Amino acid sequence: MVAAPAVKRPGWFASRWDRLNGPTRITGIDLARGLAVIGMLAAHLLWIREDFSWTDPSTWMDVVDGRSSILFATLAGVSIGLVTGGTTPLRGERLALARVRLVLRACMLWALGILLILTGVPVYVILPAYAILFILTLPLLRLHAGALFALAAGLGLVMPFVQGWLDSFAFWRTAAGTDLSIVLGWNYPFPVWIAFVVAGLGLARAGVRRLVVQVWALGAGAALAVLGYGLDAAFGAASVAISPGEVWTAASHSSGLFEVVGSGGFALAVIGGCLLVCRTAIVWVVLPIRAVGAMPLTAYTVQLVAWAIIATVVLGNPGDLAGFRDLLPFWPMTVWLVVGCTAWALLIGRGPLEWILDRVTNLSSSRRRGTPRRVDRLES
Q: pTM for the whole thing?
């Protein structure tokens, strides 16, 4: 009897390289996530004094304001879709286990978000809202792409009006309302933002690896962006101060109807564009940004913690936003973040926070007979 040949295991570096660039990795999603993280960093740290205008290149940096976080939320939906079966939704015990893991992950994200808020850094931390959005997707995981896109469209058209009504309540301007808004991540209000997550979930169900889906995402997203921002330009709402309850606007963080349509379309277009770009040799040029996107939770957390430490040491106050921006920290922090994530991905592997969340989730969730211990990974 001839012994089977030994399976040659890849070396340390080769295994890390394969994890970041192998056939199971959706590199375009990593690129989009990396851009979202860096975009949120830019929105926090750069002085952006004028609204975006296609005709004035000096205003183009405003594209990161609000749109980066909406892109991040849409990508959350894509990740949830991938972890729950991709184009074929999980069923039975596998789906039940995936739901348990999503709940556990949501709880840990919420707790981490509260800890980041306690650093005193003057930003609206997205993680508490992110956690709630995870929970809200649980009843939708059996749905296929068509139903999810229809639901996303319905939510996007209706919920801005609901949100406008909710925001008009005087309660939000009380001390208790302020505290509750922090706990809920209300600057990224889940009644509206669930539309972005559902759209991302629909993309995963449609098959983000398919060329036709990628082209469709780019084209349909661009059309929605033109529609939303075009209507906003016609109504002129973005040029005036936005009051609570304002719906007919595309102003950043307004959750207005035109923002939902325009910025939601922008997110779809960016995802489609990144997936298409990563079909070309450019995929190697953007590897450092993909490395950031391969560990988005770590990258997001590290930049806020670094901000808190630097602002405390230099300014004596982590909440001094103007003073910190005047230090011109964006480019140094971005370079260190990209270099650090690239080195970590190639030399160590998974991001540390991603590894911890995955490890705790798998150890804490109940193991069921006949169910694989690992369904998938959220960063896939």
A: 0.90
